[in-house]
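REQUEST ID: PR-0412
SUBMITTED BY: lab tech R.K.
PRIORITY: routine
TASK: structure prediction, single protein chain
INPUT:
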Amino acid sequence: MKIESMTSPDIDGLPKDTLVIVPVTSLEQHSDHLPILTDTLIAQKCVDRLDNRMGKQVLMLPVMWLVYSQHHMRYAGTISAS
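STATUS: complete
OUTPUT:
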């Protein structure tokens, strides 16, 4: 189940012990030929596949950008937690 497609009452009706998947990734450069969204695209594909396999057994949150990427800060577009 993807939380972004659910209503508040849908979420409220979930069992309290529902497993929640929180995909966390980086938003950083990958050379000059790949988009800064590369890690996010990979993580989203993993979420989609897991959602297809697990169905109503797990709740998927949206992919979040929250990593420490100071080594990429010299490249435009990088977002890093500090």
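NOTES: The helical segments are 8-12, 38-54.
REVIEWED BY: pending
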